[in-house]
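## retry 2 of 3
previous attempt timed out at serialization; input unchanged, resubmitting
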Amino acid sequence: MSYCREEGKDRIIFVTKEDHAVPSNAELVAEDPDDPYEEHGLILPSGDINWNCPCLGGMASGPCGEPFKSAFSCFHYSKEDMKGSDCLELFRGMQECMQRYPELYPQEDDKESSSSGDAPETESSAPAPAHDQDSAPVPVSAPDSPPVSEDTPAGDSPANG
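## retry succeeded, writing output
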C-alpha cells in the first residue's frame, strides 16, 4: 500500500513494487529562478549582479565595497560602444580607496615581490646575451672591478688573489 506523509518541508512517499512497475505520471515543477537557495553565478537570471557570488572574492564588502559595487554596476550596465568607458571615474575612485588599504587589497606587483622575497629587477640586472656555439665568450668586467684582459688567466686576476 502506497502512502505519503509530510515532515516539515519534506514530503515522504512510500511506494510498493507494483507502483514501480507502472511508468510514472509525475509532473516536474520548473525551477524557481528566485529561489534563494539555488546557486547562481555572477549574473542572476534577471540580469542583475549577484553580489553574494563567491567569485567576487569578498570585493563587494569591506571598506571599498561600495566603490567596487558602483564601478562594477556601471560597467555591467554600460551601453557605451567601448563598454565601461563611461565608468572611468568610478573605477579611479575604487582604485584610490583600495590604495588606502594596502593590507586588505595588495596590488599584483606587491604580491609578486613579497612572495618571491627578491628585490625588483633593475636595468643593470639584464640577462647576459647568448653566444654562438662557435664563438668564444667575450670577457666583461663588472662596473667596480679592474678591466679584464684576455691575456690574464682567470686564476691570476687581482680580484682572486
